[in-house]
Q: What sequence folds into this?
């Protein structure tokens, strides 16, 4: 019996790209809870030209390709996974995304690259794409998104696993599929695809 190839989705910033600024995520989450008191998950969506320029600058904090990308390419070549990028980057960040895709040299290996071209809420966009592409495993670094996806796409009926790359300030959060780096995610995927 032929083994099914796993469909694995990867977020971009903080997963495929190393982003040291992501360490501020828990601080931002605390500030949002204290000052904005919003219970529903909602991400800020820049509207004005000035706000979008600031957002572009913020995304420049993704400074290099994360160690582990070559391991993804090896699993693709061995026909053990089909890999997809599912990034919530907004439409006005398309040029920066395309620059990174060229640097990563993945156009021949990844099965699809999807970005948030309609500027939807990031967690809703990712949930929609995971369901649409029938992703088996999705890797993200944003704890709020991981919690949302776990509650919305993981279930007894679904075999979707949400893997989380945590940062230093989040390390004490208890979560079954928790990894310190893309390299460690890839060790898990290599073991998973060998069974």
A:
């Amino acid at each position: 019996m032929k083994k099914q190839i796993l469909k694995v989705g990867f977020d971009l910033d903080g997963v495929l790209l190393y982003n040291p600024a992501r360490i501020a995520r828990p601080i931002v989450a605390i500030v949002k809870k204290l000052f904005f008191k919003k219970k529903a998950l909602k991400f800020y969506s820049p509207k004005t030209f000035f706000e979008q320029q600031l957002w572009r600058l913020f995304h420049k904090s993704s400074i290099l390709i994360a160690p582990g990308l070559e391991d993804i390419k090896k699993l693709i070549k061995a026909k053990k996974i089909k890999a997809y990028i599912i990034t919530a980057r907004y439409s006005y960040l398309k040029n920066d995304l395309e620059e990174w895709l060229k640097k990563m040299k993945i156009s021949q290996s990844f099965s699809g690259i999807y970005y948030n071209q309609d500027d939807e809420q990031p967690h809703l966009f990712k949930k929609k794409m995971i369901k649409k592409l029938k992703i088996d495993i999705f890797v993200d670094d944003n704890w709020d998104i991981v919690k949302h996806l776990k509650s919305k796409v993981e279930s007894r009926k679904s075999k979707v696993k949400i893997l989380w790359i945590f940062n230093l300030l989040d390390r004490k959060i208890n979560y079954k599929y928790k990894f310190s780096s893309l390299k460690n995610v890839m060790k898990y995927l290599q073991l998973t695809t060998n069974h």
The chain has one domain: 6-193. Helices lie at 25-36, 49-59, 69-77, 94-104, 122-133, 143-153, 182-193.
